[in-house]
Design goal:
This protein is α+β, with helices and mostly antiparallel strands. The protein has twelve helices and seven strands. The protein has a five-stranded mixed β-sheet, covered by helices on one side. A hairpin with a 2-residue loop joins strand 4 and strand 5. Helix 2 packs antiparallel against helix 3 and helix 7 packs across helix 9. The chain is elongated and about 125 Å long.
């Protein structure tokens, strides 16, 4: 550090030495100037010079207290070496953290798959029970657990959606019908009617993730619908809308319903609300080149906006297929 300080401040040191020589030369030309006064003046100048350089050195030492200056020629090079080392350490720490997160994610995915085994066994046992009100209630609760497990699994996979997605021509009507059948017991328990206004429209996307998005929107619609009301699934002008006649969303809450963990006024009335469903649906949609919007007046309408076929094919399909 001391050598680096000398190299960095050599101009200042040479300037002070030059001042000493020049001042002494002038004083020596004055014949009446006493030697004692000359030594006194030089001592004073030397004291303040050392004091000034000591202050500069302490200031520099404080700045470089946590740095290894090595063989740096100047402060700029020392800072550059420190920044490079700090960057390498940050990258190493980031990779270690990513590895730990990956390990935790793998463990959680394995745990979710383990949970599916008893759920499958429960499904088989439910199918053997006589059809009555108790069985219907059990099937609804089983479905809610199944949806939560499925949501957890897709949450863990969301960060790897680019590697997980497989794009192909997907029948939008078939995807909607499949999700309606999955939730039919929940619909029946609340005496909900489903109106499907979707023609044989074909969308280029990943079917599994599209169905996950529809599943989240449908489960929200069922959760907040009044008993005996109607849920409409409609496709028109490049967007799929899921419309319910439920309690709706407060006007101030609408811009925030896709935020992570946001439950809103209506959500707080539902103890089962986690504020994750619409957030995950929006993030999944964005990863597939879509986006979601919501409006709420009488009931709530949440729409999936699909990109144009040519734009979609030229960007997302090409990108994901690499």
């Amino acid at each position: 550090m001391f050598k680096l300080f000398l190299r960095e401040n050599r101009a200042t040191i040479f300037f002070l030495i030059g001042c000493f020589f020049w001042l002494n030369l002038l004083l020596m030309l004055e014949v009446d100037f006493k030697a004692v006064a000359l030594w006194y003046l030089n001592g004073t100048l030397l004291f303040f010079g050392i004091l000034f350089l000591s202050y500069q050195y302490m200031k520099a030492a404080k700045q470089f207290a946590h740095m290894e200056v090595g063989d740096a020629e100047n402060y700029l090079e020392a800072f550059a070496q420190y920044a490079e080392k700090a960057e390498l350490e940050a990258i190493r720490a980031l990779r270690q953290k990513e590895a730990r997160l990956e390990e935790d994610s793998d463990f959680q995915i394995a745990w979710v798959h383990e949970v599916k085994t008893p759920l499958t066994a429960m499904r088989l046992l439910l199918d053997q029970l006589p059809m009555n009100k108790t069985r219907q209630q059990l099937e609804v609760e089983w479905l809610r657990i199944h949806l939560l497990v499925d949501q957890s699994l897709h949450t863990l996979r969301l960060s790897h959606i680019a590697q997980d997605a497989h794009f192909a021509n997907v029948s939008l009507k078939r995807a909607c019908v499949a999700e309606i059948r999955e939730m039919q017991n929940w619909f029946m328990s609340k005496d909900l009617a489903i109106e499907l206004e979707v023609d044989d429209e074909v969308i280029v996307t990943d079917e599994k993730w599209l169905r996950f998005i529809i599943r989240q929107l449908l489960s929200n619609a069922v959760k907040y619908s009044d008993i005996g009301s109607v849920i409409t699934i409609r496709y028109e002008k490049g967007q799929l809308s899921i419309i319910d006649e439920g309690i709706g969303i407060e006007e101030n809450d609408v811009p925030r319903i896709f935020e992570k963990g946001f439950t809103g006024t209506s959500g707080r009335k539902q103890s089962a609300s986690t504020g994750m469903g619409l957030f995950l649906a929006q993030q999944s949609a964005k990863a597939l080149g879509m986006h979601l919007t919501a409006t709420s007046k009488k009931g709530t309408t949440v729409s999936i906006h699909f990109p144009k076929r040519d734009t979609y094919t030229s960007t997302y399909v090409t990108k994901m297929s690499r």
